[in-house]
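We emphasize that the prediction below concerns an isolated chain of 268 residues; any contacts that depend on oligomerization or on bound cofactors are therefore not represented. The input was used exactly as deposited, without trimming of termini.
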Amino acid sequence: MTLKILTWNTAGRTKRIPDQWEYLKMKDADIVCLQEIQQGGDLIWRDHLNSHYPYIVSSVSFVKNRSKTGPRKYHLIIASKQEIELDRNSSEYVPWVERLLVVNLTRFNLKIATTHIPPGGNNGWVKIEFFEGLYKMLEARPTILTGDFNSPRHEFEAGTLVTWGQRINSKGEITLRKRIHGQDGIRWHEGELKLLKGIRQINYKDMYRDKHGYDLAYSWLTGKNKDIKYRFDHIIGPSEIEVLSATYDNKSMRSLSDHSIFSFVMRV
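Result of the prediction step, given as a token string:
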């Protein structure tokens, strides 16, 4: 049989949830992984998801008395047509526990995770602590990891990847940043690169790249300049998984969110 997994950063747009849901349900995914859910939107999302998904797990309660403003106002939801249960070991890997949600897909002996890695510009080294922790999680146990990684900075059709620990100078040369937020730029670069491309060393793969190679796909447009495109949204998993399709739906990044829906279909 096949299994369709979908990931979407909903941009915290609580007022748009009814419209987001109408669009999302047309995708008919077996498992839905959502990021940037605000506290006020948690029950609204659950009410909509309940009509199609009997199993719903949220990270809303991972942090008590969480602020309704600031970088930690968001959490995650995973909804599934197949039975899932919360994996309670997920919090050991990242500094902000509400930004990593791991479930066991009991029928298929699989773990599905979703994350929203904080951007480095506002949150500094928390971003790299996420990258390093998530890589350790994948090393420890086979997991399909979905979500918004806020990386890479650039990708080229030749397969070259540029992290936020690097710069491209006026000659087009890629160089390392020596210091970032007062610390070693090499660690920043290696932290991103290991999760994005080093996964091959632990028998993982990027589900989109596995199917399409190095085309110039994107899933987010910067608000300042719509010509600058980033592929921030990912699904990675064990290399033995057979990928039947992998698609970014850029129509979903317009009024509904600032991110594309990314879905892939696997054989199980």
